[in-house]
Amino acid sequence: MARINLDHIRHAYGEKPKSEADYALKEVHHEWNDGGAYALLGPSGCGKTTLLNIISGLLQPSEGRILFDGKDVTYLSTQERNIAQVFQFPVIYDTMTVYDNLAFPLRNRGVAEPEVDRRVREILEMIDLAGWAKKTARGLTADQKQKISLGRGLVRNDVNAILFDEPLTVIDPHMKWVLRSQLKKLHRQFGFTMVYVTHDQTEALTFADKVVVMYDGQIVQIGTPAELFEKPRHTFVGYFIGSPGMNVLPASIDGSSIKVGEETLDLGYRPEIAAGAKTELGIRPEFISLSRDGMPVSISKIEDIGRQKIVRAEFAGKPIAIVVPEDGEIPADPRVAFDAAAINIYADSWRVGREG
Amino acid sequence: MNKTWNNKAWFMVLPVLLLVAFSAVIPLMTVVNYSVQDTFGNNQFFWNGVGWFSDVLESDRFWQALGRNLLFSGIILAIQIPLGILIALNMPKKGLGVPVCLVLMALPLLIPWNVVGTIWQVFGRVDIGLLGRTLDALGINYNYVNNVFDAWVTLIVMDVWHWTSLVVLLCYAGLVSIPEAYYQAAKIDGASRWAVFRYIQLPKMKRVLLIAFLLRFMDSFMIYTEPFVVTGGGPGNSTTFLSIDLVKMAIGQFDLGPAAAMSIIYFLIILLFSWIFYTVMTSSDEQA
């Protein structure tokens, strides 16, 4: 297992990138802890698979270095980096038995047969396929195949990291939960460094200690699920995490008071804003309350999703979403109040702190 | 669900039925008809039972020709299948090389059989042929007209030249259908080049290889035009395959009865082999 350092990495697929826009992956400079579980989350085409392939060595970065435990591995092949990867579609050697599939990476490295046997049996127990050892891998279900792909990584006890490239895409929804919790358990038990690429926020938030949100080729925030929820660093994070996403409203700021449309709110502190920046107010639908007093709002639609209701409304000329408990009352003359502590202020899409 | 039965729908099948009847069933039945009758001309036929069949099966001529066919098909398969796989593995997977290679590979397949025969007939001639003259100049004694071994080598090289690309194209189609992730996973698992071939490429090519194998077996087993053009079945009878013998018998000697019996036996042999190959290869597929 290893600590991973991404040292000023950039990547462009074309030759000789001219402008910032030519980079599929804009500058990434981070340190990932040994034994951490990281999820790379973002929409399609945001560069998350590019970053994963750079870590695994299937791709060479255009610029920058990558270090495992302080050792420069930028120019090492995938094999020399000693990492394991689980792909979107299960890769199994379907003419071999389950046992031989798991033994394959060890035998290729010339590990002695008794040791191979010991390791393989251990992994078979771990991934719950002990009863299948002598069967050929072809007849297995997608989730069993995916477990074998994972097992082939786990069987080598010296891997630096295990990388997952949207591994649950082809798995049935109910098996997803089972596999994800098994993965969690294995991680807690053995503590390998895991990097998990996904575009599914539930998957990312339940799997990882740290979620790396990517947008348009850059990392916009690295944080715990709670941080991403409460203090999104970028309006994209606010919008992407949560269901429905954060309400972002154009606002003008004067000292500690914010003006949205005709309404004025007091923040209780003075946000630090550079001159001329486009300012916005962000508040999650969970922190808006609907009652008889407060600011006026007009309701356009109510979606009942079972445990709660989502109210779509218009506030100061902009659409907003409000989450109301299932038994919550919706008044005839509705008004809203914002929880001041849950308000984030954004300047040019980035979250700003307090002045002084 | 209720199905609606309408027997008039059978009329829709009629055109196909007629087509098949005239192109296959009726000619085949004519052959069956000839095979059990004898004639002395004047369109008068006499019942002969299985007489022609036992005649054919008891003749050395038939068994020798069959032996030559099996030897030829065996050699052809032993060369073309591995060679086809080897070429397919080394063909480019992307870029400008792909269409260039594919067109080059498809070229021999587009040339008619008798033209291929004529090309090689001239190519190999000792007096004017490029190959014949070159070998002669190199001091190699080569003459497909009177040397049995040279005649066989010429036919085999010609068939390899003509048909290996079919195996290549089929294998290539199988290879390009393998997702990139397999190769990446193999890299991560530390697999050798041989292991990649043995455990990824070969299993994925199995289906197309089965087709290539069957096609090449049947085609080489039915070979007629090329040896007819190049060697005419000689020297002696050394390249007289079943098909050539059959034509000699039917048209040369006008022995319609034995020829018909022989073609039915020939047909049954091909059917039998194809069925055996197919069963063996598909059953191993299911077990796995």
Model description:
The complex is a heterodimer of chains A (356) and B (288). With 356 residues, chain A is α+β, with helices and mostly antiparallel strands. Chain A has 2 domains: 4-235, P-loop containing nucleotide triphosphate hydrolases (Rossmann fold), CATH 3.40.50.300; 243-351, OB fold (Dihydrolipoamide Acetyltransferase, E2P) (Beta Barrel). Helices cover 25% and strands 32% of the residues of chain A. Chain A contains 9 helices and 23 strands. Chain A has helices spanning 48-56, 78-81, 98-108, 113-126, 142-154, 173-190, 201-207, 225-230, 235-240; strands spanning 4-11, 25-32, 37-41, 63-68, 71-72, 83-86, 161-165, 194-198, 210-215, 218-223, 247-250, 252-254, 257-260, 263-266, 279-283, 288-291, 295-296, 298-304, 308-315, 318-325, 335-338, 344-347, 350-351. In chain A, the strands form 6 sheets. A 6-stranded mixed β-sheet of chain A has the order 6-7-8-3-9-10, sandwiched between helices. In chain A, α3 (98-108) packs across α4 and α3 runs parallel beside α5. Chain A is globular, with a radius of gyration of 24 Å. The two termini of chain A are 42 Å apart. The mean pLDDT of chain A is 84. With 288 residues, chain B is an all-alpha fold. Chain B has one domain (68-287): Orthogonal Bundle (MetI-like fold), CATH 1.10.3720. Chain B has 12 helices and 2 strands. In chain B, β1 (37-39) and β2 form a beta hairpin. The longest helix of chain B is centred in the last third of the chain and has 32 residues, at 256-287. The mean pLDDT of chain B is 84.
